[in-house]
Write a structure and sequence with these properties.
The protein is of the alpha/beta class. It has two domains: about 5-35 and about 75-110 and about 270-340, FAD/NAD(P)-binding domain (3-Layer(bba) Sandwich), CATH 3.50.50; about 115-265 and about 355-425, FAD/NAD(P)-binding domain. It is about 30% helix and about 25% strand. It is built from eleven helices and 25 strands. The strands form eight sheets. Strands 5-2-1-9-21-20 form a six-stranded mixed beta sheet, covered by helices on one side. Helix 6 links the parallel strand 11 and strand 12. Helix 1 (about 15-20) packs parallel to helix 9 (about 325-340) and helix 4 runs antiparallel to helix 5 (about 150-155). The radius of gyration is 23 Å and the shape is globular.
């Protein structure tokens, strides 16, 4: 019996899933390993964080997605080491899996720029758990403001700071502004949620630095129109229970805020670091591994790196962005290359990223998009954003649910997933001494 070509795929995100689905050849045996049992549609994670969608509406069980593809085995586990000489991947529980081709699509993790103590006070948005923690933090702030004893305390609870004005920062701040101005405006008796301060901090001279300048300006105008204060050219120096300290020029300022959200940069995962060590591969400042034109690690043609962990460049030598489209096309390319090699073709054309454009949504009927060089903003960009995001959600059932939810939200401004679940650092707030405890909740 002919030995099948063993492909191990690490990560069931956009890149890993695309690679698996393009390797349906019977002579290929695929083992897809992920530390989660679901594929997460990360571009809509901010909608979970702001109560528009529930986690189940943007996630799909990997086994269910790949159930009809009989040459794929899905396993729950986390890769922690690799032996490139022996062609083995080692998991955290000690299990090892041999491969003929390895596709690494483990993604990235949030970077706090060597200030990991900030994580406690400023959660990022990379996982379902972080999204629900942010939702908790946002909704809890309004609840605590309603119980505040002094105007200063209420003001601190109603001040929200988002650090980082990339696509995630703009999406979060725009959604937060709509929650305060519309969704919650009639829900409280003591506070006025629409008076909440939402501040977007950015170190660069403009928002959406990866976008063309005209779209960056339009995005800032759209988010400002929602009531968000955009502060550019500043550097955050500290985040703690009191708020955010930042430098503007030579002066230092403190923003008293109980809710700080992190939409800053990304860095390599611990597995990515170990892989770079084992293969002696060169990395960039973020820890991404510099790959060959065919997305393989130098000196290891059997190891492909795709998605956020790969430092790949375009024809002009410019690094490719860490977006879903790059990961998907990388996964398709890796699968195509493996298929070509199985047919005896060792030389394949270099990976070419086809840039379909970029887009960011700011709020209701407000978005910016660069589609094939065509710059759009406002309503047209928002409609394109809706269509593309619905199209790329993996499960049909989820597409229908999200479409219905979006339609209802558009008509009513309601957000159906406004649940405060789990615990957060803010739950341990000490009770004001001026409030007595009658024992009956009054």
């Amino acid at each position: 019996m002919e030995q099948k070509h063993r492909v191990v795929i690490l990560g069931g995100g956009f890149g890993g899933l695309a690679a698996a689905q393009k390797l349906k050849q019977p002579q290929v045996e695929i083992t897809l390993i992920d530390r989660r049992n679901f594929h997460l549609f990360q571009p809509l994670l901010y909608q979970v964080a702001t109560g528009s969608l529930s986690p189940g509406e943007i996630a799909a069980p990997l086994r269910g997605v790949l159930s009809r593809q009989k040459n794929v085995r899905v396993l729950l586990g986390e890769a922690v080491d690799v032996d490139p000489g022996a062609r083995r991947v080692i998991l955290r529980d000690g299990d090892a899996f041999e491969y003929d081709s390895l596709i690494v699509a483990t993604g990235s993790q949030t970077s706090y720029y060597s200030n990991d103590s900030w994580r406690e006070w400023a959660p990022s948005l990379k996982s379902v758990e972080e999204a629900t923690a942010i939702r908790h933090k946002i909704l809890y702030a309004f609840e605590r403001a309603e119980r505040a004893v002094t105007p200063e305390e209420a003001r601190a609870w109603l001040t929200f700071v988002i650090v980082g004005a990339g696509a995630t920062g703009l999406e979060l701040s725009g959604a937060l502004a709509e929650i305060a101005r519309e969704t919650l405006r009639h829900d409280f008796r003591k506070i006025r949620p629409q008076e909440a301060r939402i501040i977007l901090l950015e170190g660069a001279p403009r928002v959406l630095g990866a976008f063309p300048e005209d779209l960056s300006a339009k995005a800032e105008k759209l988010v400002t129109r929602l009531g968000v204060e955009v502060v550019k050219g500043v550097m955050v120096t500290n985040i703690n229970a009191a708020g955010v300290t930042f430098k503007r020029g030579e002066s230092s300022e403190l923003l008293a805020a109980k809710t700080v959200l992190w939409a800053g940069g990304v860095m390599s995962t611990s597995f990515g670091e170990r892989l770079a060590q084992r293969t002696k591969a060169e990395t960039d400042r973020s820890g991404r591994i510099k790959v060959q034109p065919d997305l393989t690690v130098p000196n290891y043609p059997d190891i492909f790196i795709i998605g956020d962990l790969a430092h790949a460049v375009d024809e002009k030598g410019k690094p490719l962005p860490g977006v879903a489209q790059v990961a998907i096309q990388g996964g398709v390319y890796a699968a195509k290359t493996i298929r070509a090699r199985l047919k005896g073709k060792q030389q394949v054309a270099p990976f070419h990223y086809f840039n379909k454009g970029e887009m960011a949504v700011i709020g209701r009927a407000a978005a910016v998009a660069n589609i094939f060089g065509l710059h759009l903003s406002g309503w047209p960009a928002w409609l394109i954003w809706l269509f593309i995001h619905l199209m790329y959600i993996v499960e049909f059932q989820s597409r229908v649910l999200v479409f219905i939810q979006w339609g209802f939200e558009y008509l009513t401004f309601s957000r159906g997933a406004r649940l405060i679940t789990g615990t957060a650092a803010t739950d341990s707030v000490t009770k004001p001494e001026t409030m007595g405890n009658t024992g009956d909740g009054r």
